[in-house]
Amino acid sequence: MKQRLPPLNALRAFEAAGRLGSFKEAAAQLHVTNGAVSQQVRLLEAWLGMPLFERHNRRVVLTADARAYLEQIAPLFEQLALATASYGVPATVSRTLSVNASATFTLRWLVPRLEKFRSEHANIDVRVETSNEPVESLKETYDVIIRGGPDTFYGYSMRPFLSEERLPVCSPALLSRLPLREPQDLRQHTLLHTTSLPRVWPDWLATAQVYDLSPAATLTFDHFYLTLQAAIDGMGIAMGPTSLVSDDLAAGRLVAPFNGPRLPSRSYCTYVPDERSADDVVVLFRSWLEREGMQQDHWIRGSHGR
């Protein structure tokens, strides 16, 4: 008797969407459009004569019957890949890893290092989206979310990977024009501020025991990466987080004029949904972040020790 099998492409779309809980993420993994995944799922639903997902805004949830169906068919795709590999065709296919991080962190820390990760893991496509929204407010589900911490969120595992402190930084050219021998010399300079971080300079000055300091001028920017760029361009002195200015310090684009003090700050942490914390690619990326963070921390301590 001829076997009656459902369309293979529809099964692939269903398996990916069911495993990831998202048509968008399934589309990214399969390298097709969201609409193509949705169309294939509707085709399979019509073929089976039953709904497979409950739609909730941007998320999709498997029905009870569909969950049982997925548990049965998911191992078959792995068996098919292994069987194909036995004929000399690699079983490993490209995998998409979705990451969400703040724009400043992405621009100044992650992007300069990401090519290193990609060169070591060519089969992993990294999709980075930027946002400053809190973890619990994100509308989409990501494999890895990078935020400050450590914080605790229900349904997520958290691991710190990059420590951070803040200290004044400026361009070498500015320092040669107006030397800074002690914190009181900041009176001769322009202090660079960021709207979202109004307490950074006052807190550092209080820690340095410099009170009632009136700088020559102040400049305030609405994004922190603009503040750092203004410092690089010699427009004034910024409070630089060690994690985000380490590359500029190493390259000589910025200098730290004082040995101390350093203002404590929150660490950068990875937040991963519990259901993805054991995923091989997520574990790999997290471990890579932690190695990179440790290397930077050692460099900061060695070159600009406390």
From TrEMBL:
Residue ranges of every copy of the HTH lysR-type domain listed in the record: 6-63
UniProt cross-references to InterPro entries, sorted A to Z: LysR-type_TF_proteobact-type, LysR_HTH_N, LysR_subst-bd, WH-like_DNA-bd_sf, WH_DNA-bd_sf
Pfam (any one): HTH_1
Example GO molecular function: DNA-binding transcription factor activity
UniProt-listed CDD domains: PBP2_GcdR_TrpI_HvrB_AmpR_like
Record's keyword annotation contains Transcription regulation: yes
GO biological process: DNA-templated transcription
Entry keyword set: DNA-binding, Transcription, Transcription regulation
Signal peptide stretch: none
Gene3D superfamilies in UniProt: Periplasmic binding protein-like II, Winged helix-like DNA-binding domain superfamily/Winged helix DNA-binding domain
Record-stated family: Belongs to the LysR transcriptional regulatory family.
Name of protein: Transcriptional regulator
Species of the source: Advenella kashmirensis W13003
